[in-house]
Amino acid sequence: MKTYDILTIGGGPAGITLAKILGGKKKVGIVRPEDHSMVYCAMPYVLENLIPKEKILKRDELITDSGADLIRATVTDVSFKNKNITFNDGSKCKYEKLIIATGATPTIPPIDGKDLKGVYTFKTENDLKLIETVIKEKKIKKAVVIGAGAIGIELAQALNSIVAECHLVEMAGSILPNLINEDFSKDAQEEIKKMGILLHLNDRVTQIKGKDRIEKIVLSEGVDISFDDNEGLVVFATGMRASTNLFNDTELKIGNQGIIVNNKLETNIEDVYAVGDCVQFKSGITHEITLGKLATNAVPMSRVLAHNILGDDRVYDGFFNGAATKVGSLFIGGTGLTEEAAKDKFDIVVGYSELTTTFPIMPGAKLIKVKLIADKKTLQVIGGQIISGSAVTDKIDIITLAIQNKLTVRDLTKFSYSAQPYQSFFPANNPIVACAENIISKIKIEKESQKTDEILC
Questions:
Q1: Which of 144, 223, 355, 409 can pair with 436 through a Cys bridge, CB separation 3.0 to 4.6 Å?
Q2: Alpha-carbon distance 214 to 224, whole Å?
Q3: What residue segments make up the domains of the chain, in order of their start?
Q4: 24-50: per-residue pLDDT in tens?
């Protein structure tokens, strides 16, 4: 029976990161059941024929070139006591340390008809293949996407370029409810309508009707979406759950959101760790358990764990959930807490700015809207949102770094930055700094108003 110093179950972003750092230094095995690891967030662009599928398949060499073994198999059993795992062919493998990186699985609400033909999720290479095939073979004319988070919106845009009629259903009052607030979502919703996507807000699917295949979608607000002659397609993008079924009958502690770990990614079992989407963890801001199933969380988690295995002493601080998407011609990003989430824990103050992405005199300058959310008591930055006609991820990352390092809006007013007419904001008009100044002005006005009230009293 082969023995590994480090055995990882899962070959996604977390597994690849672990292999890159630990491979060559330890005897490492990465177990992956899928044919390929993929750039999953690029799947809508494959469906839309913007890029070929081959471009989003990650090379196995990302694992093997590091010196790690890639084990193509499905794990059917884990014995923590004997420190071994069993594969689907009956063979076994031993480990000194086990890392669980099994990722997450799409969820579908308990709706009547969810198991009918024509209902899909959109997470894996197989999901992509199934949807591509059914669109081609059934000559799909109408599509319904349930859930207007980033995945749902990007998928709806892709399907809208293929089918004659595309609907997007969201139970919240605005799109991207976990990323941006309703005021910022209005521009994006206008983009969706311009593209011809039929948007249903404050609505949800109550039933999917059909004998063998979907024939009708019933929505809570009284609208029915009917499909004729097998022409319909329904895709749920309603969230993810940790893939932990393998461990249900074991002593491994699992919470509502995933495997329970400490800030060094250690589980309750000695020499067993967990990272990525299969993990339950806290917000780096509120320190309460929160959702954070993003590759951009899985990778830094894995980095912390890998370096600790090599003798370092690092901790993982929590989820900050910086993320971005594209809606039509608009680039949208958010990080930290939205206003709604922040109001539950803090007395907040919000700053705004609306400037240009480059010097306004330059051709191609785009509008950029920025929002900062701060704790009124400490002035610490706890959230940020950006919407623009050009890429926003670099600006979102600056705000995320500020949140991680507990910077205040006063710190941001002293932010030192570079400038060049084609590449940056106008030196006197950095929108992040302008937001910070806006918050300070609001606080100052509020304090002066309070003084006036005291005098009048």
A1: 409
A2: 12
A3: 2-105+241-309, 119-238, 329-453
A4: 999 999 999 999 999 999 999 999 999
